[in-house]
Design goal:
With 439 residues, the chain is α+β, with helices and mostly antiparallel strands. It contains eleven helices and 17 strands. Helix content is 26%, strand content 26%.
């Protein structure tokens, strides 16, 4: 009994609750965020300029300018993910899957009681950031570009380069020009407020759960192994960042530019805690080209809105399911094995006892309608030894006798009362052809 109780307790040790999803409808889709493709950059700019070829500024859609501010922490596109090769408070990692908002086509409106959509096995880009630079990592003049405007003090110097320390990683930083810019030079008055990072890009595959109500990514249900992207086209990557940050070329006033965000918060940049939001903006800036110029975003000139095109790489073709969540109990594997072992021991013991009883069972006498005779003649004295008495012989012969057999065997038997001198006596009689003697 103790083993049964113990096995029941062990079964629920380390038991957890997990959320699973019940699908009701599945449809074909394209989704995900793939590798940065530098060949998309120039054709994309030309596509933007073609409607107004004589427009003297670069075209910068507001939709892009608005997204950059918090891309990596925007739950429409990204989720926080466990880091791969760094740890500690200065390590941040984000998984860009694009979610439902970058899936084609738009989700169907059927089954409104099912609140979620599961997008199966799509490409994803994981960006891992380590705040600051190693001592051996520095920027050269060719790695940096100054962005400023005459008549405004607003100006920054943005730098990006390959890391000399972390193979395959990039380094990036923004340095505030506290006194503005002049002829492409960053003017400062001593301390230069700045924020820098070392980041790596990994390619993965993931399945994501998204909300139908607001398209937010709710969770990542599965994720594949990471492969670091070691072949970033740095020249095209810089061109994409330059298009994003050069507010003079796009005709955006300096107070409305991305540079203003850093110039106007110089004091915050001097404190590691207070500058967390600004650091996320820097992370979003360096993540922008990866997000914009992957095959499944409109940086790809061949991508169509709300139509599944046939020109995407095969890894972007998948399916999505309308699902509803439910909670299931997950039993720990080791505890389940212990439960089976203990239950098996108990069951084996029970079967062994039953088998023994069946094999070693004794033949019980038949109970007749004569209890006194059953008691006298059908009981055995296990403590007796020596030769059998005539009464024992009679008991053995009548052990399995029925009522009729008893009457037949004992028809001539006489029973005497207890004698003070001699005790119980039985007169000799006949039971069939056999004699029964007592004295």
């Amino acid at each position: 009994m103790a083993a049964v109780w113990l096995s029941g307790v062990l079964l629920f040790v380390k038991t957890t609750l997990a959320t699973a999803h019940d699908p009701i409808h599945t449809y074909d889709a394209t989704a995900g965020v793939g590798q940065f493709n530098g060949s998309y950059v120039k054709p994309f700019f030309e596509k933007l300029q073609n409607p107004n070829p004589e427009y003297r500024y670069r075209v910068m859609p507001y939709s892009i300018h608005a997204i950059v501010y918090n891309l990596v922490v925007n739950s429409l596109y990204s989720t926080v993910s466990p880091p791969i090769n760094c740890e500690g408070r200065n390590c941040d990692s984000y998984l860009l899957t694009g979610g439902l908002i970058m899936a084609t086509p738009l989700p169907p409106t059927i089954y409104p009681s099912y609140p979620l959509i599961l997008i199966h096995d799509v490409p994803a880009s994981q960006l891992e950031f380590r705040r600051g630079l190693s001592d051996e990592d520095t920027f050269s003049e060719g790695d940096c570009t100054v962005y400023g405007s005459e008549g405004f003090l607003i100006g920054v110097r943005f730098c990006v380069a390959n890391s000399r320390v972390a193979h395959g990683s990039l380094i990036a930083g923004i340095y505030v020009c506290t006194n503005g810019t002049r002829q492409g030079e960053c003017l400062t008055n001593g301390v230069i407020p700045n924020i820098t990072t070392t980041f790596s890009i990994y390619n993965r595959r993931a399945s994501v759960i998204t909300a139908r109500s607001n398209f937010s990514i709710m969770s990542v249900s599965s994720i594949g192994p990471p492969t670091q992207d070691l072949n970033i086209n740095l020249a095209a990557y810089r061109t994409a960042l330059d298009w994003l940050l050069d507010f003079n070329a796009t005709g955006i006033p300096a107070p409305s530019s991305i540079a203003e965000r850093f110039w106007n918060t110089q004091d915050l940049l001097l404190n590691e805690v207070w500058s967390i939001e600004l650091y996320q903006t820097l992370q979003s800036i360096v993540a922008f080209p990866i997000w914009q110029f992957n095959p499944n975003n409109f940086g790809n000139p061949d991508l169509a809105a709300q139509e599944i095109v046939s020109t995407l790489p095969p890894e972007f073709y998948t399916n999505a399911s309308i699902v509803a969540p439910y909670t299931k109990i997950v039993v720990n594997r080791d505890m389940f094995i212990a439960f089976l072992v203990l239950e098996s021991i108990v069951l084996a013991f029970i079967w062994i006892v039953l088998l023994y009883i069946w094999i070693a069972r004794s033949h019980l006498p038949i109970i007749s309608s004569y209890p006194l005779i059953d008691f006298v003649l059908k009981t055995r004295n296990a403590a007796s030894s020596g030769p059998l008495s005539p009464l024992d012989t009679a008991s053995r012969d009548i052990l399995c006798a029925s009522d009729k057999d008893i009457r037949s065997s004992l028809r001539d038997t006489q029973v005497f009362s207890l004698s003070k001198r001699r005790g119980l006596g039985l007169k000799t009689g006949r039971c069939g052809d056999k004699s029964v003697a007592g004295g």
